[in-house]
Amino acid sequence: MSRNPATRSTRLRRSVLSVPAINPRALEKTHAVDCDAVIFDLEDSVAPEKKVEARENLRRFFSDRPLENKERIIRINGLSTDFGSADMELVTALGPDAVLLPKVDEPQDVTDISDLLAEAYAPDDLRIWAMIETPRGILNAAAITEAGRTPGSRLDCLVVGLNDLRKETGVPAQPGRGYLVPWLMQVVLAVSAYGLDAIDSVFNDFRDEQGFDAECRQGRAMGFAGKMLIHPAQIEPANRYFGPSAEEIAEAEAIITAFADPASAGLNVINSGGRMVERLHLVQAEALVHKARLISARKPA
Ligand SMILES: CC(C)(COP(=O)(O)OP(=O)(O)OC[C@H]1O[C@@H](n2cnc3c(N)ncnc32)[C@H](O)[C@@H]1OP(=O)(O)O)[C@@H](O)C(=O)NCCC(=O)NCCSC(=O)C[C@H](O)C(=O)O
Ligand SMILES: [Mg+2]
């Protein structure tokens, strides 16, 4: 069941832009921006009295000019709310690439949605993303991920929501996210065990470029595949920090070349420029180069 973390990401998810479905102007902008994925939000960025209008906006958006070349995810309201069932009907009608469930507490939250989608969509045609943003969600991250990977299930990606988590725990927003790091790493560990992706939380101060850069660097170093974004200005730095750098690509290519040398045949460990390199590093290097190729092959928005 578990896949090698080095090969877990077959999709680019460096920049995952959230767009309130109530805002047609922002929806229109998604065609022109260079993010890897778009979350169309029906949940917390849409006021209760505007949910119907937001669904209509999305219906129009999907039928008038479908979004190309980006993963399309719809964030619904929880099934236990007054809005969840109508949101799910919309998801089933529109067929995005994934549905994002908010405030997932336990495995059942994911399997319930999986069951609802089972008749209409094959697992690969409509996947499930889960927001981990409650204390129970963090505590259950491994169980949620494990249950989501059972045959027929469609869980593909976890997204951390620190605004809700801070609200529930009282941990304030601070540079470096010191007290939150153990919880963030718990999510990364859970997805790594089952070959999924994790997306780092939004950074609210969208005019604070330095703060955002620092958080992207930290998120990448922690093992996140990308970052959830709230503003188009965050896309370019997220793509840069979560994509492989020129040095990383050169290093990966050197490892691939070294193992391709006939002198390395039958060797599991070699000396590459004074550093021990094993075949597990080759797997990582191939994954990195694969990602770099996906990025180069991406059509500009
Ligand atoms: C935060 C904002 C309300 C700021 O909006 P605004 O004041 O309009 O910003 P700007 O004037 O700088 O905008 C410049 C232009 O860019 C467009 N724009 C802005 N944001 C987006 C966007 N997200 N997607 C597409 N386009 C966007 C504006 O329309 C302007 O265009 P134009 O008028 O033509 O020049 C706003 O950025 C915003 O609403 N952001 C998204 C909020 C959101 O999605 N919230 C939900 C996700 S956060 C979350 O999930 C938290 C999580 O659950 C947790 O618990 O942590
Ligand atoms: Mg939230």
What does this structure look like?
With 301 residues, this protein is α/β, with parallel strands linked by helices. It has two domains: 5-242, Phosphoenolpyruvate-binding domains (TIM Barrel, Alpha-Beta Barrel), CATH 3.20.20.60; 246-297, no CATH class. 44% of the residues lie in helices and 16% in strands. It has twelve helices and ten strands. The chain has helices at 24-29, 51-64, 84-94, 107-117, 135-139, 141-148, 162-169, 181-194, 209-222, 235-242, 246-260, 279-297, and strands spanning 15-20, 37-41, 71-75, 98-101, 127-132, 155-160, 197-200, 226-229, 269-272, 275-278. It is globular. The two termini are 36 Å apart. Residues 1-7 have low confidence and may be disordered. The structure holds ligand LIB3CWND and magnesium ion (MG). Magnesium ion is lined by residues 44, 102, 133, 161, 163-164. This is CoA ester lyase.
Give, in order, the helices and strands.
EHEHEHEHEHHEHHEHEHHEEH
> Helical stretch count?
12
Low-confidence region ranges: 1-7
Structural class from helices and strands?
A: alpha/beta
Mind telling me the CATH class of the largest domain?
Alpha Beta
**What's the helical proportion of residues?**
40-55%
Question: Which oligomeric state applies?
Answer: single chain
Q: Would you identify the CATH H-level superfamily of the largest domain?
A: Phosphoenolpyruvate-binding domains
How many E-type strands? 10
Q: What fraction of residues sit in β-strands?
A: 15-25%
CATH topology of the largest domain: TIM Barrel
Backbone shape: globular
What is the second-level CATH architecture of the largest domain?
Answer: Alpha-Beta Barrel
Radius of gyration, in Å, reads 20 Å
Taking all residues together, what is the mean pLDDT? 94
User: Strand sequence of the main sheet, in spatial order?
Assistant: 1-2-3-4-5-6-7-8
What is the distance, rounded to the nearest whole angstrom, between the alpha carbons of the first and last residues?
36 Å
Family: Belongs to the HpcH/HpaI aldolase family.
Domain HpcH/HpaI aldolase/citrate lyase: 14-232
Organism: Rhizobium chutanense
Keywords: Lyase, Magnesium, Metal-binding
